[in-house]
Each structure stands twice: as structure tokens, then as C-alpha cells.
UniProtKB/TrEMBL annotation:
Keywords: Lipid metabolism, Membrane, Transmembrane, Transmembrane helix. It holds the Pfam family TRAM_LAG1_CLN8. It is a multi-pass membrane protein. GO terms for molecular function: DNA binding; sphingosine N-acyltransferase activity. It comes from the Eukaryota. Residues 137-359 form the TLC domain. One of its GO terms (biological process) is ceramide biosynthetic process. Residues 368-388 are annotated as: Disordered. It is found in: Membrane. The chain crosses the membrane at residues 143-161, 184-201, 213-231, 268-288, 332-358. It comes from Bemisia tabaci. GO terms for cellular component: membrane. Pathway: Lipid metabolism; sphingolipid metabolism; Sphingolipid metabolism. This is TLC domain-containing protein.
Amino acid sequence: MNFTKESNGAFFSESFWLPQNVTWEDFNRFEDKDGLRMPKIQDVFVAWKLVPFVLLSKFVVEKFVAPKLGKWAGIKDELREKPKHVEILEKAHRANPWGRWSNQAISALTKQLDWTDEQIHEWFKARRKYATETTLEKFCESVWRAMFFICIMVYGIYCHWSKEWVWDLKRCYENFPQPVTEDLYWYFIISLANYSAWNISQFWDVQRKYYRILLFHHLLAVALLVGQWVAGVHRMGLLICTVHDVGDLLLEAIKCLKYLNLLRAKAWWLWIFSFVNGGLWIATRNIILPFYLIPGIYRHAPFGMLQSFPYSCFRGGACNISSFAFNSNHVLVIMLSCLGLLHVYWTCLIFRISYLALIVGKLEDDTREVSDDESDGPKMKLKSTKKE
């Protein structure tokens, strides 16, 4: 028995990936010509081969282009001094790099080192400050992200603007399986290469307060892109990707302005900027995706989801669990629903940051920083909890 062949046959089961009366042969029989091609699993590997190029481009922008722009704009290159190496404290820092420390933990360290509480706190404060990226480093990463988001968003809108299924979701699944045009093919390749590169670079990128959630988001984005491509539902999948990208348009640009000290808390134009950014985010991430695109999958995908259990129970059909057939469409909807929940979480963060900037008068972002509480030595809130 050919184990590899059997495994591939089980993984690429037609009953899971494809609607009834559609087989992989329908994909293979199509002759690529006139700028049209059928999506293939090999395209995923083409995208992954471009990941080193994306990482190289990111490196060049962040290390050579953006620093010059930042220094020209007045951002100072801060010098960070690493505290003297103390193995016991280094080990404790690695175990809890951003969390709070209990009084018992601090007391145990003071006994081991014969230090005072104040000395322990000062060492941790210095070590965390050393591990925190400088303003220039944060600016450089935001420049790269802003550049990429603007380019991919403009290209995505350009690719979709003339496509009839953008305005009629039913056409996303007409005459399934459909070939993909050359412009959308490259939109998929670039998007998958970018999200795959993020899954690698996040281990040395500027650390966010919600690091694990961001990791889950990037993995989810890659899984969604690959899944919709393999299943041949690229029209709906890439339309969702474009809507997703539009929501990111102004976020990194706002961060760049913050690092350049061009933002002023409570300023009237910040109200306008926040309103436009928040409106764009909510419209795309919290309205169009969950209330227009995801329901469109249920209504129009050629998997008969509305005719099977449990949806048939609410539509006057036979409420029979035997009619339920788990397929790739269910997986895509589940992943999109998870993405929608992440968007709700980030919307709350955006509202919180906007409230602090517009009402309280405090400018804040989503990166890790050494807080004022931590800089007060023994006045710290000594609580054994960890930031995500």
C-alpha cells in the first residue's frame, strides 16, 4: 500500500472539499490559457517560496529606508543599556518577561542574592526597558506595515472593482468550479506570502500586548487563504481578504504619526481621523464580514448547507441529523466566525485607545511598554498576573 498516496487521498477527499457532482478531474481538465487558470495546491507552494523575498523586503525597509526617514523627521535613536548579567534574575525574567511579581517572589530573590527589594525592582525595570523596542524601531515597523497595507489594499480593490460577483455574491459560485484571473492569482500569491511571513517575523517583531491573539490571527489567515484556494471558492475567499485589508488602511498610518509626535490628544482633527478610521474598521470588519459575506456563503455556496441539518429545521425542511454532511465550507465558516470574534476584541481595543486619546488626553498604542507603575520601584502593584 502506498501510504503517501492513501494519505493524500484521505486529506483531499472530494466529499469534504467539493460539492456533489464536482471532482478534482474538473480542475485538472481545464487548460490554462487567455490569462485564466484553475487554482491548484501547487500555487500555495509558489506563495511560500516568496516568503524569503517578503522578509528581505521587510528587512531592507525597516533597517535602511525607514530609519533614515524617521531620523530626518526628528525621531531620536535611543540608546538602551543592558543591566549587568545576573543569571538568577535573567532566568526569572525569561520565565515572566512582562508579568507582575508577587511579594513572595521578590522576597525569595532578595534572599538568594542578598539584595534589597528596591534593587530587584530596579534590575527588572532596566531589563524590561532594554527588551522594549525604541520609538524608532516601532516607527520603522509601522512604516513597512503601512506601505504594504496601502499597496495590497489598492491592488486588491483594483482586482475586484470590475468583477461582477463583488456586487452579486451569487456569482461567486456560478458555474463552479471557476478559473481564476491572472490579477486575482497574484493577489492570492502576495497575500499568502505576506501572512506566512508574518508567522515567522512575529518572533522578532515589535511585541504587542496581545501577542498570542495576533499569532492565532496570522495562523487563521493562512489557513483561510489556503483552504478557500484548495476548495476552489477563491472568489468569495479573496473578496473577504480585500474587505479585511481595507480595515487596516489607517491603523499603521496613525501609529506612524504618533511616533513622529504629530498626534495631539483631544485635537479636533484627531476626532475626524478617529471617526474615519473607526468607521472604516467597523463597516468592514464588524458589519460587511459577519452580516453580508458569511451569510452569503450559507445562501449561495453549492454545498446545500441550508438544506441540511440543522438549518433545514428552521426552513420547513426535514429536521433529520442524517442529512448533515461536514465539509470544507463548514470549516471556512467556523474560521471566519473566529476571525469575526477577533475583530470584536480589536474593536474594543480601538474604542479604548480612542477614548483615552480623545477624552482622557492620553496617547497609547498596542505595543508593550514599561509602565509608570513599574518605574516606581516598590510602589509597584505586586500581583502575580501575566500580560498576554
